[in-house]
What we know:
single chain; disordered N terminus; binds MU-OXO-diiron; binds calcium ion; PhoX
Amino acid sequence: xxxxxxxxxxxxxxxxxxxxxxxxxxxxxxxxxxxxxxxxxxxxxxxxxxxxxxxxxxxxxxxxxxxxxxxxxxxxxxxxxxxxxxxxxxxxxxxxxxxxxxxxxxxxxxxxxxxxxxxxxxxxxxxxxxxxxxxxxxxxxxxxxxxxxxxxxxxxxxxxxxxxxxxxxxxxxxxxxxxxxxxxxxxxxxxxxxxxxxxxxxxxxxxxxxxxxxxxxxxxxxxxxxxxxxxxxxxxxxxxxxxxxxxxxxxxxxxxxxxxxxxxxxxxxxxxxxxxxxxxxxxxxxxxxxxxxxxxxxxxxxxxxxxxxxxxxxxxxxxxxxxxxxxxxxxxxxxxxxxxxxxxxxxxxxxxxxxxxxxxxxxxxxxxxxxxxxxxxxxxxxxxxxxxxxxxxxxxxxxxxxxxxxxxxxxxxxxxxxxxxxxxxxxxxxxxxxxxxxxxxxxxxxxxxxxxxxxxxxxxxxxxxxxxxxxxxxxxxxxxxxxxxxxxxxxxxxxxxxxxxxxxxxxxxxxxxxxxxxxxxxxxxxxxxxxxxxxxxxxxxxxxxxxxxxxxxxxxxxxxxxxxxxxxxxxxxxxxxxxxxxxxxxxxxxxxxxxxxxxxxxxxxxxxxxxxxxxxxxxxxxxxxxxxxxxxxxxxxxxxxxxxxxxxxxxxxxxxxxxxxxxxxxxxxxxxxxxxxx
Length: 678
Ligand code: FEO
Ligand code: CA
Ligand code: CA
């Protein structure tokens, strides 16, 4: 294996060194790929901002908020007393919960509120088909892995498919793998090649049918169900849109430039109004060896060093320096669209939506039927984008409407965001912004670049038009009730720190932004195709007593939160926020939080659950009217080894009990349902 630990110890990016190496090719240890040096609006000098909150709330409350029993190492759910969730009693359905306290980052347990239970619905390695082999990590095998649930579940949706609410489709990404804890060490190159192929097969995407005996009951997955499907790093995809077939995406193996094998680095995503699932190919650069002098290599973090995963040892196309493969990296970094209702459909990669480190894509249809997808590029100082489809959404369930809607993301306009605004002492910042066109009406809007170049080398195009460098946009999701868009910036510890890089600005207000923030964006006229917007800071994360935190003006106690990542909305339009990086930033296990977006309680953040040691909270899916919350527990026990595992999630023998001699147990990333006790 290549050097996996260039960032040994807790990294300045907040994650463990192992997670950094595997998930994003240690991006934080490498130079920032955005070489633009000019911030696009006046950088405000870094200053110690003391928020009004910090003065009002003070440290005593902050200390009380974390002094739960978890700090004593108790694995049981523990609650902060008091505070019923806002607005509960007035609303039918939904649920109340007593918030949990933050959980210390050495606790290997799922922590959920009192009165709730958690159940793994499906785990890495669970068999999906009637002929799937049983899970046996001592025998790494690609054929087996292709027929089992993949590793490191990330984007998740649970789509109920029948009127009685007893059948559903689970759709789930498998972002990356951790060879060191998944499989035993090998002693021969042949055996290690088998491991590499098994890892390729554990990537990608799963569709799994679920069933249950009644509403408000746990779901279970159905082995051998008709719609069950695995998509892996070798599954055939169709490249579509304006850059498909261009010279930039042709290889010796695919002179048509339209047929790609596999998807990888699939991080977040979104479910479309027409029932397909979108998935973002994020840190694809870590899978390739490439010519560092090739156009775009530096900007996309591609190098000629051995890749983090070593797949070039078993599949030549991952070495783009080899004859015929120079363009293979151009065939990754896209938004992919998968139809979970048709297991024989060929999934597609949409070049019209641009190529960058796509976190995900979330679609809204506005009142005029305009289809807009919001997308973040998750890299320090990279950008926020939107895609506006050329054609309008067609409602109804006819075959013609379905065919039409399946083509919506193949053609449209691509924009990148520029923010302007005012930085206030209490971080109640707000301002306006403009969507700068990159492609419009089928024509490039970027001087010196063709449409194909803009779409394949989108970062270079966005640099040229003066987009605003952001603090790592993760999920970007519109509320389907209000149309407001929530832009989650997870962190950027380089802002205002690295020479030549932008300092704080109104939309990215903190130097060395370790804890992240969330921007609330309102399109002009509520239109998906608006060219301007207004925005405000919704949340500047951290421990509530910290200087510079801001919770939408809420001045009571809040849960400590850091590194917001994926978000979701519940039936009452509360925002739910999952985190990735709290162990490194505030020494707490990552969690899931809820915050009202409107009303008297706007900004009142509470914590719903915490995931086990070294795990990240992904998903999430909120079926509050059904008493359920789903999370994908990703990379539990990430820093362990095959011989010395750090987590035993989710198959704890019993709290605190270690496996018997000779019995292998270790962490299995799983999709978990948290359900109110009956
Ligand atoms: Fe895979 Fe941007 O998190
Ligand atoms: Ca993410
Ligand atoms: Ca993340």
